[in-house]
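Hey,

The postdoc asked me to send both predictions to you directly instead of through the lab channel. I've kept everything plain text so nothing gets mangled by the mail client. Protein one:
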Amino acid sequence: MAEEAALQASGLRFSFGKTEALGGVDLEVARGEIFGLVGPDGAGKTTLIRVFCGLLAPDSGACRVLGLDTVRDRARLIRRIGYLSQRFSLYGDLSVGENLDFFAEIHGRRDSAGRKRRLLEEMDLLRFRKRPAEDLSGGMKQKLALACTLIHAPDILFLDEPTNGVDPVARRDFWNILAGLSAGGVTIVISTPYLDEAEHCGRVAFMAGGRIAAAETPAGAKELVLERICEIVCSPVIRAREAAGLVPGVVSVHAYGDKIRAALAAGAEPGALRAAVEKHARISAFRMVRPSLEDVFIHLLRRNRGTTA
C-alpha cells in the first residue's frame, strides 16, 4: 500500500470578508519532502500555511495533514506540527537555553534536556546558550526560533518566510539544517520570497491571486518556459530595458542590477534585440541562458494575466 501523503488539500477556499485569499487550492505533499511556496505579497502563501496548521478553517474544501482533518482534529494535529510564523516571538530577556526550556514546557516536554542539547549543537548555538536572545544576530535568532519550533519533535514543519531579512551566510546555514531535517524524515512546507532558495526544494508551488499556477520540481518548472531567455550586461540599464521592450517578439524584459533579461518568443531574432539595445546602451556581454525560477514565475504571471508585459 502506498504511503499516505503528509498533506492533502482539495478545493481550499478562504476569504477575509469580501477579499478572496484562497481561490480553490489543490495540493499534495509527500512525507519527507521539502515543498516550497513562492509568490508575491498577497498571493495567499501565509493564509494557506495557516489553514494547513488549523489556525484558519477553510470556507470550503478539505485539508488533511498527517492523516488528520485540520478542523475536526485540530487539537491532535497541533501536537505533531511545528509552525514558524513571520512574527515568531522569542523572549529577549531570556537566554537561548531558557527560551528552549520555555517552549518545551509549553509543549509538555519535561524530558527535553537531551533534545535541547542536540538542537543547540545542530544550530551551532551551544556556546551561546547563556546569552540573552535579544543579543543574538538576526541569523542566530532565526536558528533559535527554529530550535524552539523543533523542541517537541514535530513530524511536519510549516515555515513562513523564515529567512526574510537574514544575511546570505545565515540563509545558507539555515537551509543546510533543513536539508538534514528532511533527510531524517521531517516534512517541510516553506514559503520564501527568495527564488534562489526555492532551488533547494523538492517541488515548488508558484502562487498568485490565491491560486497555484503550477507545482513542479525546479527543473520541471523551467521546462514550462517556452520562450528563449537572453541576458544582456549593459549600461545604462534603464535605457536598454526600454529599447528592448519595443523589439518585436520580446514578450517580457526586466532589469537586474547591471543586466537585463529578455524573453524572446519563437521566431524572434536575438540579433534584432542586440541591435536595438546597442543604439541606446554599451553592451559588455550578450548571451542566451537557461530559464531561472524567476523567469518561470514571470512566465506564469504573464500567462495567467493574459498579457505580454
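Protein two:
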Amino acid sequence: MAEQDKTQNPAQPQLSVEIDDVTAQGMYCNLAFITHSEQEFVMDFMFLSPQAPKAKVRSRIITSPKHAKRFLTALADNLSKYENRFGAIPLEMPPQGNPPTGLFN
C-alpha cells in the first residue's frame, strides 16, 4: 500500500537555497514603488529617512506577472497568519503634505 501511495502522490522535489552573509542580513525598507508593463512588474524598495527629501532605492525586483501574482498570494497568506496570531495590522494614510511612507503604485 505504501508503494501505491508513492505513485499517486510523488514526493515534492527538494529545493536547495544558498544565501551569502550580506544578503542574509536583509535590508530595511519603508517605501516601495511598483510599476508594470505587459511583460513584467518592477518593484523598487526604498528607505525614506525622517526629514529627508529624498529616498534611496535599496533593491529593485523585476518579475513576470505570474510570479508577481504568486508573490501577492503568498504575502496575503502570511499576513493573514500574522494577524490571526498577533491581531489586525492598522493601516494609516500619511497626513496631507507629509512624504509617503508605505507602498504606492
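Summary for protein two, as requested: The chain has a mean pLDDT of 86.

Thanks,
C.
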